[in-house]
Structure formats: C-alpha cells, structure tokens
Amino acid sequence: MGTRKKAAVESPDAVAQQVDGFIEKFESAMTQRIRAVRATLRKRFPTGIELVYDNYNFFVIGYSTTERPSDCIVSLAANSKGVGLSFYYGADLPDPHGILEGSGTQNRFVRLVEGAATLKDPRVEELIRAAVDNAKTPLPKAKGYTVVRSISAKQRPRR
Q1: What is the pLDDT of residues 115-129, one digit of tens each?
Q2: Which of 30, 106, 130, 150 is the most exposed place for a label (fewest CB within 10 A)?
C-alpha cells in the first residue's frame, strides 16, 4: 500500500543515486554524520549486504549476511534527531557495560552521539563482534552490494 518494493534489477549506479537521495533529505550536519557512519560500517562489513529502507519513522541501512532482513547483524538507523546503531538480535547479546538501549524482546541500539567515532569505542566494537559471532549465517566471501528494500510513501520530516 504505502510501501514500494525494489525493482527486480537495478544497476549499482541507480541504487547508489537512490540511496544518496534518501540521505540528502536530512539537514547538512546529519547528512555528513550518516555518510560517515555508513562509510565506517561498510569498511567494517565489506562483504555484508546493505539492506536500505526509507521508512516512515527512520532511514535504515542494515548490514546483513543475506538479503533476508532476519539475517541482519547491525543497522544504521537515522531520523531528524540523530543516528543509532541497531542490533537486530541485541536482546541476545552480552552487554557487560550496559550501553545497549531499548526494552523490546529482540532489538537493542546504541545512540551514535559522536557519530562514526562512537563506533570506535571498545565497548561498541565488543558488541559488534558479539553480533557477528551470533549471526545465524556467516558473512559472505564476495564483495557486498546494496539493495533498496522499501520506500514508504509517507515519512516523518527528515529535517
């Protein structure tokens, strides 16, 4: 209804332009933060598949072992107020430092207050390693690629 699935075949350039357009909806400072976090996560997960969602509440880029959302390890989640690192199965992760937020039965997140620099925090790196170790499917060996999974027709303001 309000969501459009990706076309069967889209060129990598067309997908890159589409994702850039999603990011450009944000204010300049947030755009820079999203790009920096994405670049850091892509470097961390070079073989991961980027699953992109331009949803009602959030713009999300998940790093997954397959094209199935349930195989997502972590996600960049952004709205007009900030950027977070979401752990799809965060409720199952050890969190000895108590930095995970959220109270759902599955998902947990860390606010990336300092943007990509927060990803270098040893406590966050420990969580990312644990999430990779807990993945049901190992990361692929081939270079990762990007898939636009859905675009919501209605969205909260990004600015």
Answers
A1: 999 999 999 999 999
A2: 106
Residue 30 in domain? yes
Rounded distance between C-alpha atoms, residue 113 and residue 102, angstroms: 16
Looking at the structure of the chain, the number of domains it has is 1
DSSP 8-class letter at 15: H
Domain containing 24: what range? Answer: 3-152
Strand order in the sheet with 49-54: 3-5, 146-152, 49-54, 59-64, 72-79, 82-87, 108-111
Beta-carbon contacts of residue 89 (< 8 Å; ≥ 6 apart): 106, 107, 131, 134
Do residues 87 and 100 lie in contact, with contact meaning Cβ atoms separated by under 8 Å?
yes
Q: What is the pTM of this model?
A: 0.88
For residue 60, tell me if it sits in a domain.
yes
